Amino acid sequence: MIALGLLIIAIGAFCQSSSYVPINKVKDWSWESYWIVQGVFAWLILPLLGALLAVPEGHTFCELFYTAPSFNIWMTMLFGVLWGVGGLTFGLSMRYLGVALGQSIALGTCAALGTIMGPVLLNIFFPENDPLSQLTFAVILGVAVTLVGIAVIGVAGSMKAASLSEEEKKAAVKDFNFPKGIVIALLAGFMSGCFNVGLEFGKDINFGELTDPMFRTLPATFLVTLGGFVTNAVYCFYQNGKNNTWGDYKKGTVLLNNLVFCILAGALWYSQFFGLSLAKGFLIGSPTLTTLSFCILMALNVVFSNLWGIILHEWKGCNRKTIAVLIIGIAVLIVSSFLPQLI
User: Fold this and answer.
1) What is the CA radius of gyration of the chain?
2) pLDDT value at position 103?
3) Which residue, among 259, 249, 230, has the nearest Cα to 88 in the 3D structure?
4) pLDDT of res. 205
C-alpha cells in the first residue's frame, strides 16, 4: 500500500513537471493572459470538482464549511493567498534560470519550508494538539537530505553559469540571469511553502470517517488554490490593463488552440495535489511518510523537471563534470523520497 502511495505521488510529480510543456504551444497571448486562463482550470474548476469527491452521499458541499471552524477556513485561504505570491515568482524563476534549475531551487526551498512551517505554525495556535510531534528524526532527516540534493543541483547550476558563454546561456534559456534568478527562486520557494501550511490548517475540513481517506485533503486543497487564484487574478488583470492585452481573449484564430493547451496545463498541474491526496490515503500506516509526503512530491517534481530540462536542451553545452554533479543531485533527491521509510 505504501509503495502504491509513493507511486501515485511520483505520477503526480511527473504530470506537474510536464505542465509547462503545453504552455509552449500557446500562441499570440501575453504571459498574463495564458497564466490566468490556465489558472482558472488549475486553481478553480478542477480543485472544486476534486473537493466534491469529499462529500459523502446525503451531505452537501456547503456543509463542509458550515461545520468547520471559521478560523481554520480563513487561515487555509490566507496561506493560499501567500502561496499565490510564490506562484507568480515561480514563473519568473524559470524565466531567468530555465525549467530545470528554476524549479529545482524554488521547489527545494518549498519542500523544506512547507514541511517544517506547517507543524511549527500550528503549534503556535493549537499547542494542545502537539503538532511538533510530527517533526520526528526521520522527517527532519528526509528534509535535510532533500536540501542536500537541491544544494548539489544548485552547484550544477552555478557551474553551468560559469562554464557557458553569454551566447550559449541565452540559447538554452533566453533571459538567463543566475544571480537574479536565484534570489527570485528562493523567494518563490519560501512563499510556495505556504501551500502545505494551508493544507495543515485545513486538513480537518471534511466529514471525518464519512469521507474516504483518499479525498480528505481535497477541500483544503480547493481553499488554498482559491486563495492563490485571487492573488494571481489581481496581478494578471493588472498586467492586462497595464500592457493593454485584454484583446488576447478575443483573438478567435488562436482561442480554441490556447484554451485546449491551457486546460491541459491546468489539469497536469492540479494532478500533483489530487495525487497527493490520494496517496495520503495509502500512507496512513506510516505517519512519517504522511508528514513528508509534500516534501517527497516537491523533490520528485525537481527530479522530473530536470529530466525535462535535459530534453529541452537547457543543459546543452555543459561539460561532463557539470552533468555528473546534476545527476548526483537528482540521485540524492530520489533517495530522500525513500530513506525515511528505511529508518
Assistant:
1) 20
2) 67
3) 230
4) 94
